[in-house]
Amino acid sequence: MTTASAHRVSPHDHAPHHHHHGDDHHPVPRPSIRVEGVLGSRLDPPFADHLHRLAHAGAYEELTLDTVDLARHRLRAVGSLGTEFLIALPRDTLLFDGAVIACDDHHAAVVRVTERRWLRLRPASAAAALELGWNAGNLHWRVRFDGDDLAVALEAPEADYRARIAPLIAAGRVESLEDGA
User: Fold this and answer.
1) Are 163 and 133 a contacting pair, CB within 8 Å?
2) Beta strand 99-103 pairing with 32-35
3) What was the pLDDT predicted at 116?
4) Confidence at residue 29, expressed as pLDDT on a 0 to 100 scale
5) How far apart are CA 20 and CA 16, in angstroms?
6) How far apart are CA 165 and CA 175, in angstroms?
7) Which residues, other chains included, contact 154 with Cβ-Cβ below 8 Å and sequence gap of 6+?
8) pLDDT value of residue 67
9) How far, in whole angstroms, is CA 151 from its chain's centroid?
10) Residues of the chain with pLDDT under 50
11) Burial, 121: exposed, middle or buried (Cβ in 10 Å; 0-12, 13-18, 19+)?
12) What domains does the chain contain, in order, with CATH numbers?
């Protein structure tokens, strides 16, 4: 288990962050937490029971991240209880689903990862495959190959990806499959 530290940061340590909730009620913001490492996994024996108790006390917070954010070493995000996390990890440390990033007697925070969504594209010919591959590379899309299909990791709305290759789809050179990957 890697040791790490999570420090509470006073509101004066960084620029204020304003949220509008659509009404006149402005809850007192929770203090920010600076995260400089991963304390362990939520499944590790030292954490499992403690996290369960904190969850029943309403002091268990989830920080939901997209899969692409796991590779980032610097990140600012807000957890499910409204705590702002200022993450600055060493190069040899990565976040993962279930990573405990803060834990004390009164509060704990665990990283949860959204499931990666994929857009599956099927070229109609070798020439169409080359053109689709050129577009995917030029647009810096994260892809994987699955047989004759190209699966594109969705890091933005799916419609944005389809729009970028709309001429290929309209001409029947590439088929966009609905079943995903």
Assistant:
1) no
2) unpaired
3) 76
4) 59
5) 13
6) 10
7) 116, 117, 118, 119, 161
8) 82
9) 19
10) 1-27, 180-181
11) buried
12) 6-113 (2.60.260.20), 118-177 (3.30.70)
Q: In this predicted structure, what is the pLDDT of residue 43?
A: 85
Gap between the Cα atoms of 42 and 50, Å rounded:
9
**Do residues 37 and 5 touch, judged by C-beta distance below 8 A?**
yes
pLDDT one-digit tens code per residue, 21-74:
444 444 455 679 999 999 999 988 889 899 999 999 999 999 999 888 888 899
The residue written with tokens 């990862």 in the block is 113
3-state secondary structure of 152: strand
pLDDT at residue 68, as a whole number? 80
Looking at residue 179, what is its pLDDT?
A: 53
Do 145 and 132 form a contact (C-beta atoms < 8 A)?
A: no
pTM of the model: 0.56
Any long-range contacts for 65-70 (C-beta under 8 Å, 24+ apart)?
A: 65/95, 65/111, 65/112, 65/113, 65/114, 66/113, 66/114, 66/116, 66/155, 67/113, 67/114, 67/115, 67/116, 67/153, 68/142, 68/153, 68/155, 69/95, 70/94, 70/95, 70/96, 70/113
Q: Is 141 helix (H, G, I), strand (E, B) or coil?
A: coil
* CA dihedral sign of residues 137, 139, 143, 146: negative
For the CA atoms of 80, 93, 156, 181, the dihedral, rounded to the nearest 10 degrees, stands at -100
3 state SS of 9: strand
Residue type, 101: I
